[in-house]
Amino acid sequence: MDQSQIDLLRVRQIAPQSHFIDGRWQAPREVLEVTSPIDGKSLTTIGRADHDEVDQAVAAARKSFDDGRWSRMPPAARKKIMHRIADLIEAHALELAVLGVRDNGTEIGMAIKAEPGSAAGTFRFYAEAIDKVYGEVAPTADNVLGLIQKEPIGVVGAIIPWNFPLMIGAWKLAPAIAAGNSIVLKPAEVASLSWLRLTELCAEAGLPDGVLNVVTGKGTVAGEAMGLHKDIDVLVFTGSGFVGRKLLEYSARSNLKRVYLELGGKSPNVIFDDAKDIEAAAIGSVNGIFRNSGQVCVAGSRILVQRSIKDQFLEAFVRHAEALNVGDPLNLTNDVGAVTSSTQLAQNLGHVDKAKNEGATLLTGGDQINQASGGNYMAPTVFSDVSSTMSLAQEEVFGPVAAVMDFEDEAQAVAIANDSDYGLAAGVWTADLSRAHRMVRSIRSGVVHVNCYGGPDVTVPLTGFKQSGNGSDKSMYALDKYTDLKTAWIQL
Question: Most buried residue, 230, 285, 331, 427, by CB count within 10 Å?
Fold first, then answer.
């Protein structure tokens, strides 16, 4: 990857986009303008799906599932197609990454790994899983044979977020189709372009018509239609708690479809005074909150520092935060890109104002920068003197804003870490192996990083505790969301 390749791709014209239903591109009835967060300029249009267009997509998925073109295809044949999808993602990785960055503003260095890189690996992982999931024989009496088998559920609806659409979308699509389901997928309206291109690659790889259907548009219309649809059997979603609650309500009002939610977090990142390298902990913590402008569901947004090293850590943390280059995400010299939308930027700045009013101390940042570019950029922001009762310690900002809190001992660190409605991720920095194990056991979150922040790959699950959601993305455990258990009770 070099700058000249990126610059060629950044000026490529993008045609108006359509829905993908039953193996064909279908012109939308209404459209939405796509504006780049890099410079505020229009890129193209996408479809604004209505209830009827969602109905068509669901009908295509149902037909493809019921006639068995995919659900009853031999596992070895499905495996080959999924590997071809991964091959094509890798072949078009830079194109996909640049297209996604133009749409959502993630810095290209992170995007190339987290988007096509991660997505290709996810498809390969579940391609290999297809023919390695076995049924069971129950321990019955000699005159009975009890067989337990796993079957695909049917039609899956997937609503994916704007921060890492390819990565998180692959977490949904790959295990769903590996299990034999058909799917209707709705990307976020502010980050649909890379998914529409990936949809083309899936068709090119040989995924049968109707197995993957993609509709774009507003969550309040298309997302609601999916939530209320009686022919969607499972709904998976990554996004806000507000929308997650609406989807549960839609399930109750329709067919009681299963709803699996990943709803973000307010993750604690705990630095003890026995951490082996305070400078390394500061750098890891800076990356844990400020990469992708803090728009990461597992972002370590609450920095808990032991009082005895607070000043030392804060000096290093602020120094490394201020050293980050924030700007054009398609420039390889920049460390942090754009906030995805002007709406999100305004919300971030609102959190800054609220933190000031509640008595937190602003150490650096807190404002919009690079305004002359026309894009959405925000300086890495650090607050100290934050208490657990403040909004900044409880509400997910989903932006480049760190809340620094101090603690006296391990017991207090655990109490502060768990003083949140969320439980998605956490970090612990310590050289004491016993303490590390105690903290992993004590913190109520789906993943606890030790002496790092970030990095878990597809081999391990991402699971939400408390109001961070339910079910698991990634690993073999994700297949549980997309399969039913069936028992055969045979009298011999």
Answer: 427
